[in-house]
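User: I'm new to structure prediction. If I give you an amino acid sequence, what do you actually give back? Let's try with this one:
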Amino acid sequence: MTGATGFFAITGIIGVSALAVSLVNLLVALVLPPRTLPRLDFSQGIPSLHRTMVIVPTLLSKPQEIDDLSEALEIRYLGNRDPNLFFALLTDFHDAPERTLPGDDGCSPTHAQLSRPSTRPTARTAVHLLSVSPSRLWNPYERVWMGYERKRGKLEQFNALLRGGAQTAFSDIVGDQSVLGSIK
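Assistant: Good question. You get back a string of structure tokens that encode the predicted 3D arrangement of the chain. For your 184 residues, that looks like this:
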């Protein structure tokens, strides 16, 4: 087989496979017609029964990040105003060679940052800061001090908090904690 024949053979196989995929998709659409999926109607707003919290898990390395992230969260809130929609930052520290680092204290979210003058009064009740990091845990596989399973661990601990557990998983919760029990 010459180089030109091999080139045309490979090009032909790619073209035929693209055509085959399109034909199979068409055949499936003809045999199994599309149907409407069930959905919830939130056109009039989110009902109390379906209270929701938008979570942004993040790693912190310097104090300025908290202000930037809380401002971005406030913008999300202002674009999605609903009395039953809440927003939260789940913060944790970057991996480190030691359990604590000198700059960790400056990266802990505070109520003052949530209540800064630029935050509108209505946003204060909808925006929360949850600090997951009472301390880093030793990970023997990665041989580093890190937050509990990073994103997945933070979300798991947050879900446990919503179900009434994991009260000690968060070193600091800024915002109205009474709303957490009603989040679905």
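You can read the tokens as a compact description of the fold. Here is one thing that stands out. The radius of gyration is 24 Å.
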